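Hi everyone,

Forwarding the result from last night's run.
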Amino acid sequence: MKEFLEYVAKQLVDQPEEVSIQEETIENQLVLKLKVAQPDVGKVIGKKGKTVLALRTLISAIGKKSGNVVKLELVVDQLKGKN
């Protein structure tokens, strides 16, 4: 599942080398945390959030098929402003 998400995310972004995924288990759920380069965040989110919603739906469906609850989180690092 992690490999599938990584493949799809790398196809969406301009900087595929910056794609990383961390797995975490929280309350009997597998949480996949997707991190991409700051300029690529909009590409992963998509218009009105449709791309990330589609990714979440796919990941959830794959998890249910294997009997697991799987969630997708998009990790966004905030840019630090200059004072």
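Residues 33 and 73 are 5 Å apart (CA to CA).

Cheers,
N.
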